[in-house]
């Protein structure tokens, strides 16, 4: 396999980087009730007590704490990309520090469930997910221990 020609997000609009290269998630916030949502969307406040129908895009916290976690021990079936050979990896549900929103994401390679505990501080990072047929390395957001 040839080297990647460039990096691009696996899913557009879910995360961005600032001028220093530090990543942040892109969420949405209801201006009417203050409820946050991820992934971002333009309308339909998720708060059942709110009738707001317009959400504003906002950067979300880069840090949070482990709310729950598990370990993926099986390669995903096609058509989902999977490294060969497949290596188990941890998945963490992280409660964002400022918003209280819980965001699920892969934990960096080399971290397994045995390395995590509820309440552990985590920070956002990015990591390669796969290289597509055009040679573009697709990256995604993820979590690492802070």
TrEMBL record:
Q: Which domain of life does this protein belong to?
A: Bacteria
The record lists the membrane-crossing segments as none
User: Which part of the chain is the ChsH2 C-terminal OB-fold domain?
Assistant: 58-125
Q: Which residues form the ChsH2 rubredoxin-like zinc ribbon domain?
A: 23-56
This protein's name: Benzoylsuccinyl-CoA thiolase
């Amino acid at each position: 396999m040839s080297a990647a020609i460039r990096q691009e997000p696996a899913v557009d609009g879910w995360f961005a980087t600032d001028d220093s290269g530090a990543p942040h998630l892109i969420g949405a916030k209801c201006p009417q009730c203050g409820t946050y949502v991820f992934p971002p969307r333009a309308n339909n406040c998720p708060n059942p007590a709110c009738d707001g129908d317009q959400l504003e895009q906002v950067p979300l916290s880069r840090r949070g704490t482990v709310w729950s976690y598990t370990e993926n021990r099986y390669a995903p079936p096609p058509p989902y990309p999977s490294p060969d050979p497949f290596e188990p990896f941890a998945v963490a549900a992280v409660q964002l520090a400022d918003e209280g929103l819980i965001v699920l994401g892969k934990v960096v390679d080399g971290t397994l469930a045995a390395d995590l505990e509820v309440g552990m501080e985590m920070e956002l990072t990015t990591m390669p997910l796969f290289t597509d047929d055009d040679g573009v390395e697709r990256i995604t957001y993820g979590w690492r221990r802070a």
